[in-house]
Specification:
About 25% of the residues lie in helices and about 35% in strands. The protein has nine helices and 17 strands. The strands form two sheets. Strands 6-7-8-5-1-4-3-2-9 form a nine-stranded mixed beta sheet. A hairpin with a 2-residue loop joins strand 3 and strand 4. The longest helix has 14 residues, at about 345-360. The structure holds fe (ii) ion. Fe (ii) ion (FE2) binds next to strand 10 and strand 14.
C-alpha cells in the first residue's frame, strides 16, 4: 500500500462565523455543555474580531464574529448567515500537508505560517473546499497553551455540566446539483481519501424529494465527510432548501458521538434544544427491521431516538432542528454500537420529518 501523503490525527476544531459570538458561546455552554477555554479579541490584541473556544472531551468549537462591517467575516455572515467556515484538521506537519495537497490541485486559502507565544508555536496552513468552507491544517506538537497563540486561556463564568459529547463522528457537506462527484474526486485526488459508501436517489427518497450522497474517509478513518447533492423529486429537495438559504454549498450537519445517548439527549431536551420528530408508527416498524438491541425500545421512543443496523452492529441517532433561523446547519447526536454506517434505514422517516418542517416554512 502507498504511504498516506496526508496523515490526519483527527478534527482539530470547527470554526463557526456567527452574528454574535458572545451569545453563541453561551448557547454552546448552557445548552450543549461545552466549557469555555480560550478567547481572542481586542483584550488580547486582536482588533477586528472576537473568538470564543469551547471544548467538550475531544470536540473543540470556535465561534467567531467580526467587529467591523467591512470584513471577510461580515461578508460571509451577510451572505450565508451563521455557519461553518473552517473544518480544521490536526496534523503533524502543516507545511507538508499544504504542499502535498496544493501539488495535487488544492486551491490555496492561506500559505503556511508559524505563530508563537510564551507557550510555544503552532503552524497553520489552509486550503479551500466546497463553497466558502476551508480546511485549516493545524500542527501543534510544539504548543502547550490553551488553544493557539493570539488566544488567552479563560474559563466559563459558571460551571457548565457536560452532556457526554465525545468526538466529531462525521461532517456533512451539501453541494450544488451535479457537483457531488467533483467534490468526491477532490477528496480522493487532492487529499487521498477513499470513497466509503454511495447512496443514490433510490436509497434516499420520499414521495416528494430526493438526494444523492457519497461518503469519503481518510486513511485511518478518523475523518468522514459525506457529500450530498439534490436529486429530482416531485417537490423541492431539502438540499435545495439548504442551498437556497445558505446561498451555495456548505456544511449541512455535524454528527457528534456520545456513549450514552439517553443521558445526552435527555439533557439537551431539558435545556431547550429541539429535535426533528418521527411519528410513533416508526417504532412499530423499526423493531422488525433492527431486531434485538441492548436498549429498551419504549425508552428510545420516549426521546424519539432513531435506530438502524448494519452488518457490524447497530446505531442510535437523532437530528436537531436547524441551529439558526435559516434552515441550514444542524447537529446529529449518534451512539454507535458496532455499526460503521450512517443510518440508511432511517433516511425515509428522517426526510419525511424534514419535509414536514420544510412545509411549515413554505419551502416544500
Ligand atoms: Fe449524519
Amino acid at each position: 500500500m502507498e504511504p498516506d501523503f496526508l496523515p490526519i490525527n483527527g478534527t482539530d476544531y470547527i470554526e463557526f462565523y456567527v452574528g454574535n459570538a458572545k451569545q453563541a458561546s453561551l448557547f454552546y455552554q448552557h445548552c450543549f455543555g461545552f466549557e469555555l477555554v480560550a478567547y481572542a479579541g481586542p483584550e488580547t490584541g486582536v482588533k477586528d474580531r472576537a473568538s470564543y473556544v469551547l471544548q467538550q472531551h475531544k470536540i473543540r468549537f470556535v465561534v467567531t464574529t467580526s467587529l467591523q462591517p467591512d470584513s471577510e467575516i461580515s461578508e460571509h455572515l451577510r451572505k450565508h448567515g451563521d455557519g461553518v467556515k473552517v473544518l480544521a484538521l490536526w496534523v503533524d506537519d502543516a507545511t507538508k500537508s499544504f504542499k502535498e495537497t496544493v501539488l495535487r490541485g488544492a486551491e490555496v486559502a492561506f500559505e503556511p505560517k508559524t505563530i508563537k507565544d510564551e507557550y510555544g508555536e503552532v503552524v497553520l496552513s489552509g486550503i479551500k473546499t466546497f463553497g466558502e468552507t476551508i480546511h485549516t491544517f493545524v500542527e501543534r506538537k510544539k504548543y502547550k497553551g490553551a488553544f493557539m497563540p493570539g488566544f488567552k486561556a479563560v474559563k466559563s463564568s459558571f460551571a457548565p455540566t457536560s452532556i457526554g459529547l465525545k468526538h466529531v463522528d462525521h461532517c456533512v457537506g451539501n453541494v450544488e446539483l451535479g457537483h457531488m462527484n467533483k467534490w468526491v474526486k477532490f477528496y480522493e485526488d487532492v487529499m487521498g481519501f477513499k470513497l466509503l459508501i454511495t447512496f443514490d436517489d433510490k436509497d434516499i427518497s420520499t414521495e416528494y424529494s430526493a438526494l444523492m450522497s457519497k461518503v469519503v474517509s481518510n486513511g485511518n478513518g478518523y475523518i468522514k465527510f459525506p457529500i450530498n447533492e439534490p436529486a429530482k423529486g416531485k417537490k423541492k429537495s431539502q438540499i435545495e432548501e439548504y442551498l437556497d438559504f445558505y446561498k451555495g454549498a456548505g456544511v449541512q450537519h455535524i454528527a457528534i458521538a456520545t456513549d450514552d445517548i439517553f443521558q445526552t439527549v435527555g439533557e439537551l431536551k431539558k435545556r431547550g434544544v429541539e429535535f426533528l420528530h418521527v411519528p410513533d408508527s416508526y417504532y412499530t416498524e423499526v423493531i422488525e427491521r433492527v431486531g434485538k438491541i441492548n436498549e429498551d425500545y419504549k425508552e428510545l421512543q420516549k426521546l424519539n431516538i432513531l435506530i438502524d443496523r448494519d452488518e457490524e452492529g447497530y446505531l442510535l441517532q437523532i437530528f436537531s432542528k436547524p441551529l439558526q433561523d435559516r434552515p441550514t446547519l444542524f447537529f446529529e447526536i449518534i451512539e454507535r454500537n458496532g455499526a460503521k454506517s450512517f443510518g440508511k434505514g432511517n433516511f425515509k422517516a428522517l426526510f419525511e420529518a424534514i419535509e414536514h418542517e420544510q412545509e411549515l416554512r413554505g419551502n416544500l
